[in-house]
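Q: RloB domain-containing protein, please. Structure only.
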Amino acid sequence: MAGKNLFVRPSPERSYLRRVVIAAEGRVTEPRYFLIVRSLYRDTACLVISAKTPSSNCSNPHEALRSLEQWISKNGPWKKNDESWLVVDKDNWKDAQLNELRTWTSRTDGGHYKRGLALSDPKFEYWLLLHFEDTSAANSEDCTRKLKKHLPRYNKQIDDHDFSQKCVQQAISRARRRDGRGSGASTTVYKLVESILSCSES
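A: Structure for RloB domain-containing protein:
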């Protein structure tokens, strides 16, 4: 896999592949994770694209949204089965800040493409944790502590060998069961991963 970049734009010479464009708060872990997922499922007939540019500053939900909107405006045309996703952490952000993202995802934009919000409470690392155990996390620090039991050298960097198809499926099942409980740690990243995996080649 070394040297390969799966975050690429579709080539005009080949048949159109559905684009899944992602803007995340994190600069390292989230883009790397979705690159790993795409490489684990090589028969998935879609392009997973990072919306972040070198000058992007996605340190908060608003900046993640702005980065995604800028990418969308510069990289058309869009087709109906294309998707755009925001990947953010609940952390200490107020509901008003997150509601801006929810409002954006609820807009249909003429049905041109799907919009999604992958929100993790307390943070994205909780989604990673669910790959290894079915557990909750009291706060951000507790989440990191538990994750390091499985990835002792974790410091925002993750490797291909840390994950497998089996553990990805386990995380999806665990996150789905916890979704909508109304309290405690949760994540809807599973919806984004399911969407990526839903377009396997026939």
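A: Brief note, in case it's useful. The helical segments are 29-40, 61-74, 95-106, 124-129, 140-150, 165-178, 189-197.
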